């Protein structure tokens, strides 16, 4: 048996593949286009593993996906492939429509028309809590029946893909599963997202950009806990169902960045004796910035027996340690096109 993972060279996908091989002998085919966010270095440790096969390509390439399905006959497709950064979706929404909506549609079509599916086959679509939009301070956390109300081109394109995936269950009996997860952090996250960006900038003596007043709230989950949730959904989830996944760690961005700074103060104190938090700099807010996300994970905990293992403190310490021990990784991914993005975004 085999699983076909898409977007496995990105942040969550590569953590998923590495975690998978730590606990399974089952082969993995990784289909990834290697956009700016995909990095084969993440999977260097398994590159020559006989259980692993990498294929460079687009989830929207029907012929390629049809061929991979025929060749590998997977028992599951896990769709991580996406454009994933909200700020990029604001400056260039078209790529989000193309990959997240059209790409997911074509992937679904290839799977629908593949005649090798067994009754155990599953299509697991990895989505985000951002499809639910934003919460007021006293609102209950997002549940699986919360209204879908996306506010950015990123979240709108993910919501559209979730709807398509759902429709393939009801219309074509495709055994789909959808997970909507909160903000992840951990190893191999591209340093355009808040956590790795701040670690990288702090160490480089640069500003730590805080959008608006910094009081926006995110619900943080360690990436390894997201991967265990996905394995639970794949193993025990009911086709057609949606599972919300969250860390139960609601923090303001100011708190999150301060946690990173105090961990760095302990691990690599600044030469001048000052604190990394002194580098925090308020900058122009993101247009349409969602104020608060919080996820109610009661369903996946109750029905699938999943719960996270890392606390906010332990997960952040582990993450900061990883970036400190893997500075060559950050150096490599922050060359070239990355510099152009940072210059344009924070000009
Ligand atoms: P990422 O941007 O780090 O990685 C995306 C990967 O997809 C990259 O390897 C990229 O090369 C690949 N890709 C992009 N377009 C492709 C295409 N057309 N065909 C094949 N591969 C393509 O993203 P991530 O943070 O790892 O997120 C993975 C998934 O999880 C996304 O669907 C995202 O919406 C979802 N998600 C992310 C978070 C988070 O906090 N990062 C939280 C919840 C859900
Ligand atoms: P991000 O990591 O981009 O994830 P998302 O927008 O998907 O939640 O951002 C997390 C939070 O941090 C979000 O409220 C935006 C904010 N943020 C900053 O304040 N400064 C930054 O430079 C970035 C990238 C994000």
Q: In a nutshell, what does this entry contain?
A:
This protein is α/β, with parallel strands linked by helices and 347 residues long. It contains twelve helices and twelve strands.
Structure write-up:
The structure is a single chain. The chain has 347 residues and is α/β, with parallel strands linked by helices. The protein has a domain at 3-184 and 222-246 and 294-310: NAD(P)-binding Rossmann-like Domain (Rossmann fold). The chain contains twelve helices and twelve strands. It has helices at 11-23, 62-72, 86-91, 94-113, 153-172, 194-203, 223-236, 253-267, 298-304, 312-325, 327-333, 337-345, and strands at residues 3-6, 28-32, 52-56, 76-79, 122-128, 176-181, 183-185, 208-211, 217-222, 242-245, 250-252, 280-283. Bound molecules: nicotinamide-adenine-dinucleotide and thymidine-5'-diphosphate (TYD).
Features:
Rossmann fold, binds nicotinamide-adenine-dinucleotide, 12 helices, 7-stranded parallel β-sheet, 16% strand, single chain, alpha/beta, binds thymidine-5'-diphosphate, 347 residues, 3-stranded mixed β-sheet
Which helices and strands, and how do they pair?
Layout: E1 3-6, H1 11-23, E2 28-32, E3 52-56, H2 62-72, E4 76-79, H3 86-91, H4 94-113, E5 122-128, H5 153-172, E6 176-181, E7 183-185, H6 194-203, E8 208-211, E9 217-222, H7 223-236, E10 242-245, E11 250-252, H8 253-267, E12 280-283, H9 298-304, H10 312-325, H11 327-333, H12 337-345
Parallel strand pairs: 1-2, 1-4, 2-3, 4-5, 5-6, 6-10, 7-9, 8-12
Antiparallel strand pairs: 9-11
Helix pairs in contact: 1-7, 2-4, 4-5, 6-8, 8-10
Bound molecules: nicotinamide-adenine-dinucleotide and thymidine-5'-diphosphate (TYD).
């Amino acid at each position: 048996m085999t699983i076909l993972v898409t977007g496995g060279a990105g942040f969550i996908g590569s953590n998923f593949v590495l975690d998978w091989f730590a606990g399974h002998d089952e082969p993995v085919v990784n289909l990834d286009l290697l956009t700016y966010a995909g990095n084969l270095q993440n999977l260097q440790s398994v590159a020559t593993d006989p259980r692993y096969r990498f294929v460079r390509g687009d989830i929207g390439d029907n012929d390629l996906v049809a061929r991979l399905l025929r060749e590998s006959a997977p028992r599951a497709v896990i769709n991580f492939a996406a454009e994933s950064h909200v700020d990029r979706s604001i400056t260039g929404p078209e790529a989000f429509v193309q990959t997240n909506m059209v790409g997911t549609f074509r992937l679904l079509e290839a799977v629908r028309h593949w005649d090798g599916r067994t009754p155990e086959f599953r299509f697991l679509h990895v989505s985000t809590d951002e499809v639910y939009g934003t919460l007021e301070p006293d609102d209950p956390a997002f549940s699986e029946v919360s209204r879908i109300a996306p506010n950015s081109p990123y979240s709108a394109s993910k919501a559209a893909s979730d709807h398509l995936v759902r429709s393939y269950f009801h219309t074509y009996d495709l055994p789909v599963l959808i997970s909507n997860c909160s903000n992840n952090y951990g190893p191999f996250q591209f340093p355009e997202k808040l956590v790795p960006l701040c670690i990288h900038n702090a160490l480089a003596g640069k500003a730590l950009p805080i959008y608006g007043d910094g009081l926006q709230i995110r619900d943080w989950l360690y990436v390894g806990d997201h991967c265990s949730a996905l394995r639970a959904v794949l193993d025990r989830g009911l086709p057609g169902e949606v599972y919300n996944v969250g860390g139960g760690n609601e923090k303001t961005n100011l708190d999150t960045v301060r946690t990173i700074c105090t961990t760095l103060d302990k691990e690599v104190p600044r030469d001048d004796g000052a604190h990394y938090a002194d580098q925090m700099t308020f900058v122009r807010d993101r247009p349409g910035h969602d104020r608060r996300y919080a996820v109610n994970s009661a369903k996946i905990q109750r029905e699938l027996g999943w719960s996270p293992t890392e606390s906010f403190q332990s997960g952040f310490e582990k993450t900061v340690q990883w970036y400190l021990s893997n500075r060559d990784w950050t150096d490599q991914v922050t060359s070239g096109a990355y510099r152009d993005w940072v210059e344009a975004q924070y000009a």
